[in-house]
Design a protein that fits this description.
The protein has helices spanning 11-22, 39-49, 65-75, 96-116, 151-170, 192-202, 221-233, 269-280, 304-310, 318-333, and strands at residues 2-6, 26-31, 55-59, 79-82, 121-127, 174-179, 182-183, 206-208, 215-216, 219-220, 256-261, 267-268, 286-288. By secondary structure, the protein is α/β, with parallel strands linked by helices. Helix 3 packs parallel to helix 4 (96-116) and helix 6 (192-202) packs across helix 8 (269-280).
Amino acid sequence: MKVLVTGTAGFIGFHLTKYLLDRGDEVIGLDNLNDYYDVNLKLARLEQLEGQDNFRFVKLDLADRQGIADLFESEMFEKVVNLAAQAGVRYSLINPHAYIDSNIQGFVNILEGCRHNNVKHLVYASSSSVYGANTAMPFSVHDNVDHPLSLYAASKKSNELMAHTYSHLYSLPTTGLRFFTVYGPWGRPDMAMFLFTKAILSGEPIQVFNYGKMKRDFTYIDDIVEGVVRTLDHTAPPNPEWSGMKPDPGTSAAPYRLYNIGNNNPVELMYLIEVLEKTLGKTAEKLMQPLQPGDVPSTYADVEALVDDVGFKPETSIEDGVARFVKWYRDYNGI
């Protein structure tokens, strides 16, 4: 296939692009290479991809309406995976406009590109953060998610609503993927796994939010990529049993689907720290902090829909995943 992957220099985008290239797909990778975190890490990821015959990189911002329109018209993609977004829950409290520009304006440009150029399937990144104030565990795609706790979460919920509109009006198949706390080699420096590892190895204290009582459904990157590819290959179908009398949020009468991709096994933050300490052979100095604005105390993915539709369930244990991440971190930093 000819696939557009946006956010190709990002954590998930890099791994997905590599997977698609390895299996023989042609990939156009788009990224604006912004400085939300260390650009050198993004460039190092790109170096792993460039030079392959079936890959081409395009530096472009999703919010560039004409640029995105021209790209779609010239390339005629069969399928699109939209992973580019302004990420981060806490950063959305500081720079809210970045989320509107990238996650709302940018996403409608992607939708328009798909609509006007016969794209067969759009898969896009949503987030576990959309569950917001929900406390029913595990989180299900069939639950209502109308109470986000951050603008980041609200922007991702907006993406799901916007995608449904295009699925309904233009029969564009769309699949939204709610990712749960992704980690692994080449991971984001602003995420807990990276921050903790760096601090522990440097002998610096780590900030432990919610006094260590946070629970996260940590999901290893290879499992995320497998889920993305399986859903990409399984074009979103309409649900013939969908009823407006009792609407199911996870499906539709239009070709529209939502899936959780999570490990289905929440881990307490203190246990993650224990595993890291054991793997690194060093004890962390812990600064206990309250729950931060915008954060949710726990996440836990119900992956039944993913298993039923594409036959996949993430299963990498936190122990195995942490060991692989730490090995990469030491290699990458020459430690």
